[in-house]
Write a structure and sequence with these properties.
The complex is a heterodimer of chains A (311) and B (286). By secondary structure, chain A is mainly α. Helix content of chain A is 71%, strand content 0%. Chain A has one domain: MetI-like (MetI-like fold, Orthogonal Bundle). Classes of the chains: A mainly alpha (311), B mainly alpha (286).
């Protein structure tokens, strides 16, 4: 059969066979409640204005020629050069390395905090549980100022003694950044773990005990595997937060190039140097990193929920 | 009798002690330090530090920005939640993901995007310069960057809440002859008002405390600074009175965050905000 002959000729509309005016009485209204066009329209306009177009502006900036770089190849070349030069690479190493270390620390501390808050009874538990949210509520600059005052080598509440007795320097070194990022990321692990820990059925632990497992074996073989996806998600969230953090680090870090300079700081320096394309390039690197973290978190959640169904 | 699901008392006390030590040193101690440092030179000094010219202008700037951004994002949040929860349309889950973008992006990138548009070498830079319009290093730029960072807060709380409530009551009101406006104010709004308040409180706390995004667009003009920026400015200033002023200003922001936390906990404990709004499970890092 000739397929072409069954198709309508070009320019012929496929859509309404009947005249449109014959339809409305039997046609079901697609949306029952009012306001669909108004609310969706406003949502899309506002979303585009505040988020999508600005992000598009960043992406386009990395490929658009300017007076300094009249050719697209030169623009992309410059973006690549800035994104991979030694100073940027050192800042990634610092940003990602310390964020990762802080996220791991938070994995340990957060697990202990979530475990004690869910499993044990002790006075003041509700208050402690509320305090966990403090890093969410506290402006990062306030946190940075306080942490700096605590860990400063000269006259810091803890930093002074630590320096005098052990010769440790915490503020204005990578250790200071580690402390700031640990502070910032702490609630993520606790708040991700709490619901999972509280929903863990007691039966599986009792079964493990009946089968002769001691407490440590039960924890390692039964409890930990069940909560590990949530733990991993919390750690990834803390990591993502740490990578982008700027406000608290600015106070406690000396921002020495190649040594204690984080990537967000480098973006600001590029802007101050009027190197907009370089700043856009570094911004693109951070966007890609955020994207990878989003995808990782969603993948973990997807597999965790699938495994949950199979049990 | 020892149950199979309890740990020995050694483990219990060790873990509780460890957790308490961590929370006291890392969370409670910083709060105390801010208060001690702000108040240790006496109340008179504290208030004179707060009434310094730049402190006042910073407080005014922060309040102005929050007063613009919070209503904007609240209207958006209610609209987005209404469209997403009451209607079926293609690309809905994509839209939800797009709304959450600002939670994943570094705040500095959130400021950078506006600098790339309105800055001197940005997309609209030359045009703005010839028309003498100041966006960067002024209120509009700070508002835009803050709006970006706090964009999803209201919507994100309302969507699961309104999804759980369904649209049966709205449809019933419709059959009884309510128009769209009556429908929203008489039926929907009473159901979601605590959720809206909850989102607004989170949005407000973040709007007033935001540093990274705002520091990119605000530059270093003294009277165009928000409180967090002015704190850093005082902190970097080496002269006498710099650090005390920083702590005085920080204590105001701290008070704000404590109030925020208290209202938030109040809403959660009295479960005025339904279970779905509880931030038990944060799904994004910022």
């Amino acid at each position: 059969m000739n397929a072409a002959s069954t198709l309508p000729p070009k320019g012929y509309s496929l859509a309404p066979v009947e005249p449109a005016s014959a339809q409305p009485r039997i046609k079901r209204r697609k949306h029952i409640l009012p306001g669909f066009h108004l609310t969706l329209g406003y949502t899309l306009i506002y979303l585009s204005a505040i988020v999508l177009l600005p992000l598009l502006a960043l992406l386009l900036k990395t490929v658009t020629p300017t007076a300094d770089y009249p050719d697209i190849k030169q623009v992309v070349g410059h973006v690549f050069e800035v994104a991979t030069d030694a100073r940027s690479l050192d800042s990634y190493k610092l940003s990602f390395g310390i964020s990762f270390a802080a996220a791991l620390l938070n994995g340990v501390f957060g697990f202990i905090a979530a475990w004690t808050l869910i499993r044990y009874q002790f006075p003041g538990k509700k208050l402690i549980d509320a305090l966990v949210d403090l890093p969410f509520a506290m402006p990062t600059s306030v946190a940075g100022l306080a942490l700096c005052q605590i860990f400063s080598t000269h006259g810091g509440y803890l930093g002074g003694p630590l320096h005098d007795w052990f010769g440790w320097r915490i503020a204005y070194t990578s250790w200071g950044i580690l402390i700031a990022l640990t502070f910032i990321g702490f609630p993520f692990v606790v708040r991700t773990l709490q619901p999972v820990l509280s929903e863990l059925p007691a039966e599986v632990e009792e079964a493990a005990a009946c089968l002769g497992a001691n407490r440590w074996q039960t924890f390692r073989r039964v409890i930990f595997p069940a909560v590990s996806p949530a733990l991993l998600t919390g750690v990834m969230l803390a990591f993502g937060r740490g990578v982008g953090e700027y406000g608290s680090v600015v106070f406690i870090s000396s921002m020495i190039p190649y040594l204690t300079e984080i990537t967000p700081q480098l973006i600001i320096i590029k802007l101050e140097e009027n190197d907009y394309i370089g700043a856009a390039g570094l911004g693109l690197v951070m966007l890609i990193m955020s994207f990878i973290i989003v995808v990782t978190v969603n993948t973990i959640q997807y597999f965790a929920s699938r495994r949950g169904r199979n049990i | 009798m020892k149950r199979a699901t309890t740990d020995s008392w050694v483990v219990r006390y060790l873990l509780i002690g460890f957790m308490l030590a961590f929370i006291l040193i890392f969370l409670v101690f910083p709060v105390c330090v801010i208060l001690i440092e702000a108040l240790r030179r006496g109340l008179a000094f504290y208030f004179s530090a707060l009434s310094a010219k730049h402190s006042i202008s910073a407080i005014r700037m922060t309040l102005t920005v929050a007063a613009i951004v919070v209503p904007l994002n609240t209207i958006f949040g209610v609209c987005a939640a209404w469209a997403i929860t009451h209607f079926k349309f293609p690309g809905k889950s994509l839209l939800i993901s797009l709304i959450e973008i600002p939670l994943w992006v570094s705040p500095v990138v959130g400021g950078l995007v506006f600098a790339l548009i309105f800055g001197r070498q940005g997309w609209l830079g030359t045009w703005l310069e010839t028309h003498q319009i100041q966006i960067l290093f002024a209120l509009p730029g700070i508002v835009l960057a803050t709006a970006f960072v706090t964009f999803p807060f209201v919507a994100r709380g309302l969507i699961p809440l309104m999804q759980a409530q369904g649209s049966a009551e709205e449809e019933a009101a419709l059959t009884l002859g309510a128009n769209g406006w009556q429908l929203f104010w008489r039926v929907t709004f009473p159901k979601i008002k605590w959720g809206v308040l909850y989102g607004m409180i989170l949005c407000n706390a973040r709007a007033m405390g935001e540093f990274g995004a705002v520091s990119v667009v605000a530059g270093s003009v003294d009277d165009k600074m928000t409180m967090p920026l002015q704190i850093e400015n005082y902190y970097q200033a080496l002269g006498p009175g710099g650090l005390p002023r920083a702590f005085a200003l920080a204590s105001i922001l701290l008070l704000l965050s404590v109030i925020t936390l208290a209202i938030k906990i109040g809403l959660e404990w009295r479960s005025l905000a339904p279970h779905t709004v509880r931030p038990i499970k944060p799904v994004s890092p910022h």
